[in-house]
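hey so i finally got around to running both of the ones u sent me last week. sorry it took forever, my laptop kept dying halfway thru and i had to restart like 3 times lol. anyway pasting them below in the order u listed, first the sequence line then the structure token line for each. didnt double check formatting much so if smth looks off just lmk and ill redo it

first one:
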Amino acid sequence: MNWEAIREQFPALENWTWLNTATFGQIPVRTRDAVDRHFARRDETASADFLTWFNDVDEIRALIGQLINCRADDIAFAMNAASALSLFLHGMDWYAGDRIVTLRDEFPNQYYCAASLADRGVELVRMNEINSLPERTRAVLVSTVNYSNGYRPDVAFISQLARRAGALLYVDGTQSVGALRFDVAAVKPHMLAVDGYKWLLCPNGATFFYVAPELRPTLRPSVIGWRSDKRWRSVDQLHQGAHTMPEAAERYEGGMLNFPSIYGAGESVRMMLEIGLDRIERRVLDLAGITADILRASGASIMHGSTHIVAAHWPDRDATALAKTLQQQRIVVSARHGNLRVSPHFYNTEADLDRLQAALTP
């Protein structure tokens, strides 16, 4: 694979050693061009063809289906992963004594949203590992990869636990999809949300979420609008009586979409499918392995292995100060909870890691 040629799609890398995809992914030129084409088309047609934009979005849903192994009808769009999680938790019926299980050190979305149900008597349970579930567990919330330390829980096993307990499983794939493979058909979450601006290299506002067909009849939408009726394409005479929800996951969108970002997301997904998801995963894990070796050689301990988010800790170095020092040299990493977090993507090279190694050497 000619990774150097692919790197040309990312002009910011000419001036920066960007090892911080866990915070923001770089936008490919072709993705930006797709956004520009959408705006140019609006000028050419004065937006008279706006209904055809929804046809294009359906094609992008199908591309995402190829990415995670599901049907186009299973995919909906939102502005961010928090919106999808809020839909998931607030679209359910809750009873006093119900429990929501998540992991310690999870992304705050999971804690804040679950805690908002405390006034209904719902208990949030944080676990170091999810090997079993307490009684009355109604929902389990996990990330595919921990944002601060790179921990990768066995999501497929957790899914089995949840289903045996009659609980629903929400998975946040923001920190892995686009870097590591995720197979919805194999894992069987009830919902998977992916904010695309990190590893999927999308513009902000291009979050997609998968909703299992079995969940859609009972999960209440959080937004009701003109597209909440299955006859919404008949814009010349929109139905004004009682609405009938579409069966597809688009039932959760309600109204207009963030078309520029979604067009951009479609192009980023196309690029990844063209490169090959297996190739991308191998490349990302190879670079992460080299990164971990460099950090160990500098005296750091690595929080978790076999992951693409490499979190390092030194007993005598402040991670926040170190990240600031590196950024002064145009080497961008991040500090999270006392760890230095380094997160290379397929657009990085061994030369990027050589610069990191040189900067870490006293």
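and the second one:
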Amino acid sequence: MNAMIELNEPETQVNLGANNPRAVEPSMKAVYLDGTGAESLRFGEIEKPEPEPGEVLVKVYATALTPTELHWFPTSHDSSGAPRPFPIVLSHEFAGVVEGLGPRVRNWKIGDAVYGLNDWFSNGAQAEYVTAPATSLAPKPKSIDHIHAAVTPISALTAWQGLLEKAQVRRGQRVLIHGGAGGVGSFAVQLAHWKGAKVIATASSGNIEFVQSLGADEVINYERERFEDMVDGVDVVFDTVGGDALERSWRVMADNGRLVTVASQNQQDSNPRSRDAFMLVRADGSQLSEIATFIDAGVLQVFAAEVFPLELARDAYTRARQGKMRGKIALSVFAESANP
């Protein structure tokens, strides 16, 4: 493995302005963007957030990497379309411990071990602390550590909402899942298997047995075979890959089949069928609570591809771009405690 290079660490805290009363607010260590692109990632001190009404302040033990977030619209713009101010902190899924409560929060207490997902337009969890709506959190699964809990929210919620809500997968249906070894795909294979569907998944040659172990009835090696030559009459296609794989998927569907994609660019896609099939995951604390129950019962397994310390986030992005991983990459922020 190549030697890892730490991010440049500024000598001082980010300057918020001499006349800004918030400039004296407590600071925290974070990885943040001070410009566009991965080359603008910095490791240093920025202002510690404070929870607004209905929000919780979480001490982050771990967070997960979503490499495409570097280029997402919400990364650089707010919900009105205006440019967001720097510094911008990435990674919106996390696990940790409740550190503070905003006004009107009643269902959490200081010290609770939680995992969850915060708003795409807000600063994320590549930092020692993050704020999130109280309704987007759930108790951390008891059977896994914070690292594995942190890589769960986006992937598990995406598979849950895509298969169980949008596609409404039922027992006996034939389900084709593209990217069965990935973060979302590994949860999708397990959920479709749990629903009693016949699961067909695509994977690289090195992940065939792994995807089979998740519950896939058939695994197609996409490096050697074209899935449209192997299957047809599929009731549900769940796509995490996009591009050519998405376009070819229409050929293998049954007459009343459903396609769900999390890889299409929705409004930017020229194919209206792809736009209709697109879904974007939403934060949902109640669903995360159900998912935690599934994890603790052994119905769902969680996989962290690799773990990097927070200050080596840039190396983690480099590894993520190489692909062919089982699960997602995690960043360790605070060390695990003996209690939660």
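quick thing i noticed on the 2nd:
The radius of gyration is 20 Å.
anyway thats it, ttyl
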